[in-house]
Design brief:
The complex is a heterodimer.
Chain A: H1 2-45, H2 47-50, H3 53-78, H4 86-105, E1 114-115, H5 119-145, H6 151-170, E2 178-179, H7 180-187, E3 190-191, E4 194-195, H8 196-214, H9 216-226, H10 228-233, H11 238-264, H12 275-285, H13 297-317, H14 322-348
Parallel strand pairs in A: 1-2
Antiparallel strand pairs in A: 3-4
Helix pairs in contact in A: 1-13, 3-8, 3-9, 3-11, 3-12, 3-13, 4-5, 4-6, 4-11, 5-6, 5-11, 7-11, 8-9, 9-11, 12-13, 12-14, 13-14
Chain B: E1 6-15, E2 18-28, E3 33-38, H1 44-51, E4 59-64, E5 67-69, H2 74-79, E6 82-85, H3 97-101, H4 111-115, H5 121-134, H6 151-165, E7 169-173, H7 181-196, E8 200-204, H8 208-214, E9 217-222, E10 225-230, H9 237-246
Parallel strand pairs in B: 3-8, 3-9, 6-7, 7-8
Antiparallel strand pairs in B: 1-2, 1-4, 4-5, 9-10
Helix pairs in contact in B: 6-7
Classes of the chains: A mainly alpha, B alpha/beta.
């Protein structure tokens, strides 16, 4: 007690910094601890099944596509926006990409099986997917930043439009004929023993993390989300930045579309209605604030794994998997509550 | 006396039928704190907006260092070495002080990384620390977000930011309006430091004792006109209040 009092005069600033660091680490890091705890519990209860190399690589593959989508959502939410259209844009891109590759292969009548399209066609299909995603993102961005319509409404609208167009393009029937090379190499292939899908997701994560935390663009994402007016007065072209951010989210949905096509060897028109909520909850779980200005890509990685590990663990333990949805809902509410408490604590000082 | 850094002559501004400014003359001299006071509706804010490029006069001329100019935007004013510290702080609360100081003018990494858009955070932190040291601003920590700093420290960061990008004149609109006694004293000390660093300050304030304490020269506006220009030593709270509330157009010096 007395030593503390004696030391506080001279070392006060440093001690406070240390406490701040601890606070920041625990404040932003409790979700990491939750993930480690979940893994530890499941690995202890069922080491053979949960800890097997096969199960772990399945976990990573399950996370890969959602992670790529969630990275885009991270940028959008840090900029104080929201993108509800990601899942529908993914579906539209996967359909556009699959149909393009099918046409180019000249096997227009095929409705199932695989095609023998070469890498050139696959590359073109990938470009189509990413391009379509970026275009939907540009539409989102322009309506939000220039027409000043709330992001919630714009992306809810484009969610419906992208899904609708995908159904119009296909008549509601999934495109099942995809290039065999794409499915074999990307969908179920490995690179140095690591599943290709995971390699792509890791690469996207690294690039996005460097861009968000190291570049001027990334700093402006934070600034726009933190105080758009201050950003504007500092000479930042806020509408342009916002449009780029939504385009990035769309383009990543396009990349995720290619990954989804490769993995399932079919488009999945009915399978992405909940992606927007999954990505938002992953981003928020990862410590990114729904109010903007705060967040990280690494946090989102953790946030993506929580529901996937929960589901996997419940299945292995024989708990009805429906409990995962219940647990996730509770964890999400808890995460936002903690975010609010953190904010209040900071602003009261 | 040396030539004014910034000089406005015969500034008029009309909003429809409202005559906000009616032939106001105003000058900022080197190395001074010039207080601009007046009752609500006297035209202080309008004048400052015009002088900082946020608004255009209906008529009148602006000169910087004796050269006639037109200010189209705050960015143009900044190009002439004139910046404004806004009353509602124009800082990003989630970003640390260094990032806020350089927001919009980030220091880039040298070479290829810089061309790829990578910012030089260590250099920004270093330059920010130098700037804070130069102005005698002491922050609890240079790495925490602005929102965790006290109101006075936030205001200090905002002023340090303006002083980093303006080398002639900084306008401050009620910089101590929301602050307590101790923090107000610190911010006023910073205002003096800015002047001593060679940047003139135009202080807009309602707080007359404070103006008398810190200003080198006091300009009083009333109903869009100059009614008095005084030295603090030559006047008092009562004298200034009288000028603000019932002064007529004149040049008292």
């Amino acid at each position: 007690m007395s030593a503390e009092a004696a030391g506080s005069g001279a070392v006060a600033p440093e001690a406070q910094t240390l406490r701040e660091r601890l606070g920041a680490a625990l404040g932003g890091g409790w979700i990491v601890i939750l993930l480690i705890a979940l893994v530890a519990v499941f690995a202890t209860l069922r080491p053979a099944q949960f800890g097997s190399a096969y199960n772990l690589s399945q976990l990573a593959i399950n996370a890969a596509i959602l992670l790529v989508l969630s990275i885009g959502q991270t940028f959008v939410i840090i900029a104080a926006g929201i993108d509800l259209s990601v899942g529908a844009v993914l579906v539209f891109c996967s359909v556009a990409s699959a149909q393009t590759m099918l046409k180019l292969t000249g096997a227009a009548g095929t409705t199932f099986g695989t095609t023998d399209a070469g890498w050139g066609v696959i590359a073109l299909g990938t470009l189509v997917a990413i391009g379509c995603g970026a275009a939907w993102g540009a539409l989102n961005g322009l309506l939000i930043a220039r027409a000043r319509i709330p992001a919630l409404i714009v992306t809810l609208g484009t969610f419906g439009m992208a899904l609708g167009f995908a159904q119009i393009l296909t008549g509601g029937v999934d495109v099942r004929a995809l290039p065999e090379r794409l499915v074999d190499t990307i969908g179920s292939g490995t690179l140095f023993g690591v599943p290709s899908l995971v390699v792509i997701a890791v690469a996207a994560t690294v690039v996005a993390s460097l861009a968000l935390h190291g570049t001027r663009f990334g700093l402006h994402v934070f600034a726009v989300g933190s105080n758009a007016e201050a950003a504007r007065r500092s000479g930042i072209d806020v509408p342009r930045r916002l449009t780029t951010i939504y385009m990035l989210s769309g383009a990543l949905a396009g990349l995720a579309a290619v990954m989804s096509n490769a993995r399932f060897s079919t488009t999945t028109i009915g399978g992405h209605a909940m992606d927007n909520l999954s990505t938002i909850s992953a981003v928020v779980l990862g410590g990114t604030s729904l109010f903007g200005g705060l967040g990280s890509v690494v946090g989102t990685v953790v946030g993506v794994f929580i529901p996937i590990v929960l589901l996997n663990g419940f299945v292995i333990l024989g708990i009805p998997p429906f409990w995962q949805t219940v647990a996730m809902g509770a964890v999400l509410i808890l995460a936002v509550w903690i975010d609010q408490l953190k904010r209040k604590a900071r602003e009261q000082r | 006396m040396t030539a004014p850094l910034l000089e406005a002559r015969g500034i008029t501004r009309r909003f429809g039928h409202v005559q906000a400014l009616d032939g106001v003359d105003f000058a900022v001299h080197p190395n001074e704190i010039c207080a601009l006071i007046g009752d609500n509706g006297a035209g202080k804010s309008t004048l400052v907006k015009i002088l900082s490029g946020a608004d255009k006069p209906t008529s009148g001329t602006l000169r910087v260092g004796g050269v006639p100019i037109a200010l189209g935007s705050p960015a143009e004013a900044q190009g002439h070495g004139i910046a404004t510290v806004y009353q509602d702080l124009a800082l990003a609360p989630e970003l640390p002080p260094a990032e806020n100081l350089f927001l919009g003018r980030e220091l880039m990494r040298p070479g290829l990384l810089g061309r790829l858009g990578f910012i030089d955070r260590p250099a920004m932190r270093r330059r920010a620390a130098e700037q804070f040291a130069r102005l005698g601003v002491r922050l609890r920590s240079a790495r925490v977000p602005i929102s965790s700093l006290s109101g006075g420290q936030r205001q200090s960061v905002a002023i340090a930011r303006a002083a980093l990008w303006a080398d002639k004149v900084i306008f401050m609109d009620e910089p101590t309006a929301a602050l307590g006694v101790v923090q107000t004293a610190r911010v006023l000390e910073l205002v003096r430091q800015v002047r001593d660093a060679g940047i003139s300050v135009v202080l807009i304030s309602h707080n007359i004792p404070q103006v008398l304490e810190v200003a080198d020269r006091i300009v009083v506006l009333r109903l869009g006109r100059n009614v008095a220009e005084l030295r603090p030593a030559d006047t008092s709270v009562d004298g200034l209040v009288a000028a603000m509330t019932s002064g007529t157009r004149k040049e008292a010096a």
